[in-house]
């Protein structure tokens, strides 16, 4: 089938989009991705093609600089907090309109909407061509953290739109059982399939360490990631703790790092090597937002793919997965002493935890999730053939 994917990201760094698209190409389909402000010269490889719709809004022209990550005066911060909802609505709305225009000039048998921001565009294009579409929900949109003023009317409108447009989807994909159950319960959908943000199996794993040499947090360096708790736990702790990832520089200027070694983001292979050399992955987020309780972080699957045990926050779906496969120790969010105890638990019996993680690798790998993704598209293809025969 010819698949038209829509995603309001730059594509270049969106590992879920690229992994799904490449898997579908390997399964015999063709895939074109319409992204948002895709970098010039980006080559997705693997038989994929990509086009780009610009980023603009009533508040910022295409190519204009963002305030995110800058030091802002109190007045500027207040203005951003007040106006950000209108900017986001305008920017994503304009992108969706552009994606519809781009898609109208292409041939496709199915549309694949990555996240709520692409849902209206996918439903529109699929309706015009009388073809099915897939809704791939990367988050539980109604439970996302809000870093702007309360918008109850807009939130209700978005829930109505998700219910209406998502209810037309031939299939719904999402990242974990928590989000899947939330979608089923909220909207009554019975066509939801879980495709985790997992990683491919590696056949080049080194022998496990006899004991860990350190701990690594590899992810977004910003608020609501439990980094304050990690920093407090680092005081008086022997093992070094390294934090790597893209940072919210505004947040970072006031963050007390204690004994943490905070470094910029690294390419995936370098981050993987650092995790393997340290021996323990910190997989953490807050308990503040519903989406955090439902989330299944990429960091968990990254660590498992490398055979690295976890110390994780005892929150929601993340904790459920750690307990189910006995992947490491859990701690109470916000409690530095609980975190120190969890680290000690993993250090004291490290070979057992490493063995548990390696035993879980096959079931928690992309190979397993790819099978579920390909099966969804095989069903769509069979239905299409029945309609045309």
UniProtKB/TrEMBL annotation:
<dbReference type="GO" id="GO:0016757">
    <property type="term" value="F:glycosyltransferase activity"/>
</dbReference>
<keyword id="KW-0808">Transferase</keyword>
<dbReference type="Pfam" id="PF13439">
    <property type="entry name" value="Glyco_transf_4"/>
</dbReference>
<protein>
    <submittedName>
        <fullName>Glycosyltransferase involved in cell wall bisynthesis</fullName>
    </submittedName>
</protein>
<keyword id="KW-0328">Glycosyltransferase</keyword>
<dbReference type="InterPro" id="IPR028098">
    <property type="entry name" value="Glyco_trans_4-like_N"/>
</dbReference>
<feature type="domain" description="Glycosyltransferase subfamily 4-like N-terminal">
    <location>
        <begin position="15"/>
        <end position="198"/>
    </location>
</feature>
<dbReference type="Pfam" id="PF13692">
    <property type="entry name" value="Glyco_trans_1_4"/>
</dbReference>
